[in-house]
Design goal:
By secondary structure, this protein is α+β, with helices and mostly antiparallel strands. 31% of the residues lie in helices and 18% in strands.
């Protein structure tokens, strides 16, 4: 199927201005939006300038929904203005988003996001490991260059092979942050209500029941609740920015500072 594109003369400047205004109201830069949505920053700039002629309508609507989610807005805020100006009807995409619009590949829900490059690298590593163990001359060559790969080095002595005793718990530095407390076993049933409370700004991606995906950019003091029948998966830009409450139980912050990913109910 040949995809329709917008005529060059189509003006969507008012929609672009609306996107810019909402982004600035949310306190986000174009770089922030590109980081949250994975949409190329030059494509975001073109949309904010009302330049949609290079985008098939179905891709334009997909980007507008993603931008609205990143700003914690209803998709109709942008989609309604887009339909009013363009007059395009709903249609299904004939092929997935191309890399010229998106900064990098996105892993889909089926876990099929491995790129061809990653597959080739894995195959090369696998062949190298097999060859390392079945070819004596190659094994010797590698272990001569990298002695630590040899499990029984020739220069080792019985005393040198003895492992040093592990330091006592008191001597170990407390560098590992405390994990989020787990819910009691009686509450570890599937489904429930998750409430996220923001202590400082951060982005998040919330997937409810493995199908309902929501992009949110939290502001300090903002609280959002998610009800699920099975589970809730949370990916956040900063574990020290969001506190979680699962089925009425306060779990504290999601984790240490930096990106975190957690599933509720917790079963680890």
């Amino acid at each position: 199927m040949v995809e329709k594109t917008h005529p060059e003369s189509l003006s969507l400047e008012s929609l672009g201005q609306l996107i810019t205004n909402e982004r600035e109201k949310a306190g986000l830069t174009r770089n922030d939006m590109a980081s949250i949505t994975r949409i190329a920053i030059d494509q975001i700039a073109k949309m904010e300038q009302g330049q949609f002629s290079n985008l098939p309508p179905v891709y334009a609507r997909g980007f507008l929904k993603t931008l609205a989610g990143a700003m914690n807005l209803e998709p109709e805020v942008f989609l309604g203005e887009y339909r009013r100006l363009s007059g395009n009807k709903e249609e299904s995409p004939s092929r997935p988003l191309q890399n010229k619009y998106v900064e990098r590949d996105i892993i889909d829900e089926g876990g099929q996001g491995l790129t061809i490059t990653a597959i080739i690298v894995l195959l090369i590593l696998g062949v190298g490991v097999i060859f390392f163990f079945i070819n004596p001359s190659f094994h010797k060559f590698v272990t001569d260059k990298l002695p630590f790969l040899d499990s029984e080095p020739a220069t080792a002595t019985p005393s040198a092979s003895l492992a040093k005793p592990a330091p006592s718990p008191a001597a170990r530095p407390a560098t590992t942050p405390k994990p989020v407390p787990l819910a009691p076993a009686s509450e570890a049933a599937a489904g429930g209500r998750l409430i996220l409370r923001a202590a400082k700004p951060t982005w998040s991606l919330v997937v409810v029941d493995e199908r309902d995906t929501k992009y949110v950019y939290f502001q300090p003091g903002q609280n959002l609740a998610y009800d699920s029948q099975k589970s809730v998966l949370v990916t956040a830009g900063d574990g020290q920015a969001l506190k979680a409450e699962w089925n009425g139980q306060d779990l504290g912050f999601l984790g240490p500072q930096g990106p975190v990913e957690l599933a509720f109910p917790r079963r680890d």
